Amino acid sequence: MAQGRGSGGSVVALAAAALLLCVLLQAQVAESAVFTVGDRGGWTFNSNTWTNGKRFKAGDVLVFKYDSSAHNVASVNAAGYKGCAAPRGARTYTSGNDRVTLARGTNYFICSIPGHCQAGMKIAVTAA
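Given the sequence above, the corresponding C-alpha cells read:
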C-alpha cells in the first residue's frame, strides 16, 4: 500500500507543476501589449514618427491596418529599412489587418510598394 501512496503523490506533484507552468505562461501573455500602428490613421504615409514616445517589449503585438489594395507590410533588416527595399525572401503581409509579434531588438517594417517607403511609410521598433 505504501507504494500506491507514493505514486499518488507523484501524480499530484506533476499536476501541480503543470498548473504552475500554465499560470506562468498566462502571466507572460497578459504582459504583452497590442499597438495599432499609426493609431486611428492606420499604416499609411508618414508613419515613421508613430513610434515616438512609445515603449515596446519583446512579445508585444503590432497591428497594421491599411488598404490592402494600395499597401503592404514587409518585415526587413536594417539595410532594407535604410534603402527602402525588401530583400529577396522578406516576409510580406498583405491582409490589411496584420498582427506581428515583436522580437527583442530592433524590428524594421516598410511598405514595399514603390515610393511608399520613401514617403515615410516605414517604422523601426526597438523592443526591450
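The helical segments are 2-31, 78-83. Try to locate this feature in the C-alpha cell string yourself.
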